[in-house]
């Protein structure tokens, strides 16, 4: 790595040396199909990059904090380090520097498929490298071989009442899976701090592997009479196995699942599910406990539950206005929603200021595969009407649709009509991003997160100085 950095230093103009070094250190592509070994090679170099960067610039002031920011949900406050993805307000998400269209183009696909395999995205998030076909296949195999659930989790899921929300079941099952945590065991055995990441990696791999089995078990228990999820096929990819476990076999639905599980994975570090996972992980709670915390956040209507809320809202709209609503009728309905003090689900974002590219790629999928679906047509019509109405309110900073405005309509088209369940799919995908980040949190030795809070009284005193 020292050689690589010396080489990089020669290539990079003096003025840019401090920034691109971070990227160069994670971009030495290897053909090795062992993800852990590839990662192990990268970690010392990145540790060195961070160490020397902090020595060089640790005291540099990069922003200011206003009192409004403290009361305003810390919007735009730069306070977290997340390596896996960065969200640009106008352009949308970039995973390790790659936009969604670039990922769709560059990441390996299933035979005959057009959408990226989420295993490839995980590889990219963990290493910074676009993997080759063999690397992705080896990840599919690794996850397939780790997919089985311990019996206490299956029994627990079977015993939950039908009226317990699927996200509560999902989160509880993930918490209970911590009986399997290799990190918790190693920590109890006194493992050296420098090796934490290795056990977090193992837990992250097990967790990603087992989530489809948990999610499919919940789906079958709630909606398919408790029928078995069936066995994992060692030759199929993660999304194909998941879709089959759920009870669907349409190849287009499998393709949708690959796209869905790729694009919902990561949205930099400050969103509720990513931040909660990172925060709880900083207490050295194991990856299962940390991820369950993230899922409890994803279950909120202002975060992941919005994809369920969108379909509920659209269904209400259809029930009240019929299937051929005019633009004016839609406008009235939207105003009624706003005047009743509710939000229009699927629109707005805390960071984005343009249409979410995750919305756009789902719209492209719909235009290709279900252009005449009545609900898709309604979603497309709503897309025209909502933004100007939200702008008219004068307070919404981003009137454009986010990822949740489109996902439900695609799922219902393929027969998955159980809206309460949708956020669970989001959760399965979110694991890829937050687990990749958690591995790096431990690899970089990030400490317990403990910001300072203040009372209004204390702030008043501070402000009067
Ligand atoms: C995502 C969301 C929580 C971001 O919140 P935010 O960062 O506070 O957004 P803004 O700064 O634009 O909010 C300013 C005001 O506009 C309102 N607003 C924002 N989006 C809105 C929407 N879709 N419908 C109605 N009002 C909205 C806010 O509630 C806030 O009102 P207030 O001042 O009366 O409290 C918000 O846009 C929202 O509630 N959207 C709908 C739910 C959703 O789709 N969530 C998924 C996000 S990926």
Structure description:
It is built from 22 helices and 3 strands. The longest helix is centred in the middle third of the chain and has 28 residues. α6 runs parallel beside α21 and α18 runs parallel beside α20. The chain has a 3-stranded antiparallel β-sheet. A hairpin with a 2-residue loop joins β2 and β3. The protein has 465 residues and is mainly α. Among the domains are: 192 residues, Citrate Synthase, domain 1 (Orthogonal Bundle); 110 residues, Orthogonal Bundle (Cytochrome p450-Terp, domain 2). The relative contact order is 0.12. The site of coenzyme A has 19 residues, from loops. It holds the Pfam family Citrate_synt. This is Citrate synthase. It is found in: Mitochondrion matrix. Its main location: mitochondrion. It catalyses: oxaloacetate + acetyl-CoA + H2O = citrate + CoA + H(+).
Task: Report a brief summary of the structure.
Its main location: mitochondrion. With 465 residues, the protein is mainly alpha-helical. Helix content is 60%, strand content 2%.
Distinct small molecules bound, one entry per kind: coenzyme A
**Portion in helices:** 55-70%
CATH architecture of the domain at 139-303 and 418-444: Orthogonal Bundle
CATH level-1 class of the domain at 139-303 and 418-444: Mainly Alpha
Listing every helix as H and every strand as E from the N terminus to the C terminus, the arrangement reads HHHHEEEHHHHHHHHHHHHHHHHHH
Number of H/I helices: 22
Q: Which shape, going by the Cα principal axes?
A: globular
